[in-house]
Design brief:
- The strands form eight sheets. The protein has a five-stranded mixed sheet with strand order 1-20-21-22-24. A five-stranded mixed sheet has the order 7-5-4-2-9.
- With 441 residues, the protein is α/β, with parallel strands linked by helices.
- α2 packs parallel to α4, α3 packs across α8 and α6 packs across α7.
């Protein structure tokens, strides 16, 4: 049997053919919005294995159904850190069944707050076979979430509203994002999400970021019905202490929804190497200030919306297999529960048979690219460079199974993201070719 890490591009893409689903260009759009509580019960694990002990603010699953000429497309954003493998497919299938569509018509995204669950269903299958497994999210809890989401979506279908206009806009976000990979005097410095408490790290430059928050607005006439926002930074000011929170991005999003009376969805872009570390010292004050600055950008972007007639809706999904890194440890060798879980995630991806999915949605005025895993900013900037004249909004954090999606250069340089990636060298060229193929069609 050949080494799966040495498969050709043709075999990687040919494992499952590209799927094209398109509604006719003619015909009006109809929209419905839904939300469901995604806050875990006390005792369920948040990221890795820390049990929930306190809810600072609710975690939400928020969604949008777009219908045209009898076809539907579902967007759902979940205030969780990650959802992968079998668990990702379970939630995607629940939404698809409720909407009467195929799973490929459901774009499921985790916003990636770190005060929230990280559930890799394939890793869980491996951990369940251990004599002393770490704390895992309960099947009952996941099924309850699936049921709440399905019920909320079904109910929304009775409230579909006509939308005849779409607007695109963007605003610069000031003093929020900063690179996690900063070079100082020829040395790579890793700046984590709370590194602002260190004067040296806070004093380093922002580094490579995408400062633009991009917004797509659906409207009836000039009355907004729903806004989709895309911005690339880790939405994390704290983690791993038993508190659940949608963090500063959830605070800004929900504040703007209350203020404007318009449904708001927030997507995290390719933020694998982008954090708030320069501006966050872990204090409540820093979190409020980050939320306020993001809220200012949400307002500014919405204010710049220029409406044009809604065009057709087109969705294309491309399956892709990316080469796995050979696990260097057995699960049982993990020194603590969280380490065993991390090792299980890597082993699970190495054994994975299902391809990942990349999805592009063309709305005429804008296009949306949705990627799996935790892509580094390189892939967002690459996608947007392919046609600089097009408004291209990019989100990562679909199926979290592959972990970090790193360019080969980062793998050579080292640092945190490469150490936590489940992919082998060579993934960059495959992913970029797939993005180019997807956006060119």
């Amino acid at each position: 049997m050949s080494d799966p890490n040495r498969l050709t591009r043709r075999s990687l893409l040919a494992a499952a053919p590209a799927v094209l689903a398109a509604a006719p260009r003619a015909g009006s759009l109809r929209l419905a919005v839904f939300r469901a509580d995604a806050t875990p019960d006390p005792g369920e694990p948040l990221i890795w294995t820390v049990p929930l002990t306190k809810v600072e603010d609710p975690l939400w699953a928020k969604g949008l159904v777009i219908e045209q000429a009898g076809r539907r497309l579902v967007f759902c954003t979940l205030d969780w850190c990650g959802l992968g493998g079998e668990a990702f497919r379970r939630i995607q299938q629940a939404l698809a069944s409720a909407a009467g569509v195929s799973p490929g018509d459901v774009i499921l995204h985790t916003v990636h707050q770190h005060a929230a669950p990280y559930l890799d269903g394939d890793a869980y299958r491996l951990l369940e076979g251990l004599p002393n497994p770490p704390l895992m999210y309960s099947r009952r809890g996941l099924e309850r979430l699936a049921a709440r989401l399905a019920a909320a979506l079904k109910e929304s279908l009775g409230k579909l509203r006509a939308a005849d206009a779409v607007a695109v806009s963007q605003a610069r976000v000031e003093r929020v994002a900063s690179s996690r990979r900063v070079w100082d005097q020829g040395k790579l410095v890793v700046r984590y999400s709370t590194s602002g408490k260190d004067p040296y790290q806070a004093g380093l430059p922002e580094g490579r970021v995408d400062p633009w928050l991009k917004t797509i607005t659906f409207a009836a006439g000039r009355q907004p019905l729903a806004r989709l926002h895309f911005y690339a930074t880790h939405p994390q000011t704290f983690c791993c202490d038993g508190r659940a929170s949608a963090d500063f991005v959830g605070q800004a999003r929900e504040s703007f929804e209350r203020e404007e009376g318009v449904f708001q969805l927030y997507f995290t872009g390719c933020a694998g190497d982008v954090t708030v570390g320069k501006y966050n010292d872990g204090s409540e004050r820093a979190r409020r200030e980050l939320a306020d600055r993001l809220l200012a950008a949400l307002r500014a972007s919405a204010a710049g919306a220029e409406f044009r007639p809604a065009a057709g809706l087109r969705r294309r999904t491309l399956p892709l297999r990316l080469p796995a890194r050979t696990p260097d440890r057995r699960i049982e060798e993990g020194a603590d529960p969280a380490t065993r879980y991390r090792i299980a995630c890597r082993v699970a991806y190495a054994r994975r048979s299902e391809p990942l999915a990349l999805t592009a949605v063309d709305l005429g005025a804008a296009r949306i690219l949705h990627l799996p895993g935790e892509p580094l900013l390189e892939f967002q900037q690459y996608a947007q460079s392919l046609d600089a004249a097009r408004f291209t909004a990019v989100a990562g954090y679909g199926d979290i199974g592959p972990g970090y999606l790193c360019p080969d250069r980062a793998l050579e340089e080292g640092g945190y993201e490469p150490s936590a990636s489940h992919l082998a060298p060579g993934a960059e060229s495959l992913l970029k070719r797939a993005i180019a193929d997807l956006l060119a069609s």
